[in-house]
Every structure is written in structure tokens, then in C-alpha cells.
Design goal:
This protein is α+β, with helices and mostly antiparallel strands. The protein has a single domain, classed as Aminopeptidase, CATH 3.40.630. The protein is about 30% helix and about 35% strand. The protein has 6 helices and 8 strands, in the order ββαααβββαβαββα. The chain has an 8-stranded mixed beta sheet, sandwiched between helices. The two termini are about 25 Å apart.
Length: about 170
């Protein structure tokens, strides 16, 4: 278990599955996370969520320090161990977005990844319409590394998928 000013970042527990499913069934959350069609996730989606937990280098449940309330989750997957390249993902319940919780959780996870796990780089993908996330990633030091042009059909039109990354030396300079 880890803590920040306002958050507890802890390991996954079976009881988190309901909250994880509820979050991923929120239309606005699902819209910016899913490459597929926007259809509600079913309990069978639990198997996919368990695979995320089992296969992640680190998977953290994000909760409020004061109340223990579930806010979301974040994970770091190891893309290539030889090259020490991690892949970052975060999801927050819609009602907790825009309050700085995502930034606080990511600052901890990125710092932990570079200082404790000795990663060299961290990458992520974000959909072009997710302007708030792109702004946050840039604030954290991520730079755009490429785009999949018109790679996603969303809201009746084609959108780009943006690849972003940060290196350990860039994080250290901040």
C-alpha cells in the first residue's frame, strides 16, 4: 500500500471488481477508454479485469485517504523488460475526474516506476478527443511520439490515437 497527500494506492482485492465494472460502464469513461463499440460491460468482463491485474507490473486501486472510497485504478504493464519500457493506463470514475486525483496518482506511479522499478521509459495511448487527459500527460512531461491517424471511429467521426512517452531523464529534470 502506498499513500499520497489525499490518496491511498493499494493492491487489488476481489471486492474491487464491482467498482471497476461500474466505472467502465459509465458512458463517458468507456468512451475514452474503449477501442470497441460502446456497449455496457458484463460480469464476464471480470475475467479481462483479472488478467489486467495478473499481468501488470504494478496494478493499483486508487482510493480516498479519508474515506477509502474507490476512485479508480491505474496500472503499469511491462512492454519489454530488456528495454525497461512500461505502458501506463489510468481510469477514474466520472464523478472524480477534474479534481487532481489522476495527477496525484500518476505522479506517484511514474516516480515509483523510474526510481524503484528502474524503468527507462513509460508510454501510453490517448484518444484525440480526450483533451483533458492529453493536457495532464503534457503537464507530467509526456511528449507526443506519434499518431495513428483516423485510427478510431468515435462520435460519428474519425479520431486520431496519440502515442505519448516520457523518459527517466526527462522525469528527473522536472
Amino acid at each position: 500500500m502506498f499513500s499520497t497527500d489525499r490518496l491511498i494506492l493499494r493492491q487489488f482485492e476481489e471486492s474491487d471488481l464491482d467498482d471497476m465494472l461500474r466505472m467502465r460502464n459509465q458512458a463517458e469513461v468507456r468512451r475514452v477508454l474503449s477501442y470497441g463499440y460502446l456497449v455496457p460491460s458484463s460480469p464476464s468482463f471480470e475475467q479481462t479485469m483479472r488478467q489486467w491485474v495478473d499481468n501488470a507490473l504494478i496494478f493499483l486501486i486508487i482510493t480516498l485517504r479519508e474515506s477509502g472510497e474507490y476512485l479508480g485504478d491505474c496500472r503499469l504493464d511491462m512492454e519489454t523488460s530488456k528495454n525497461r519500457n512500461g505502458r501506463l493506463a489510468i481510469s477514474l470514475l466520472q464523478e472524480h475526474q477534474g479534481k487532481g486525483y489522476g495527477e496525484e496518482a500518476l505522479r506517484f506511479l511514474i516516480d515509483h516506476a523510474f526510481k524503484q522499478l528502474a524503468l527507462h521509459r513509460i508510454s501510453l495511448e490517448v484518444f484525440q478527443p480526450n483533451v483533458k487527459a492529453i493536457k495532464l500527460y503534457r503537464k507530467l512531461g509526456f511528449v507526443e511520439e506519434g499518431r495513428v491517424r483516423d485510427g478510431l471511429w468515435m462520435d460519428g467521426g474519425w479520431q486520431d490515437i496519440i502515442a505519448m512517452g516520457i523518459l527517466d531523464r526527462e522525469w528527473k529534470q522536472q
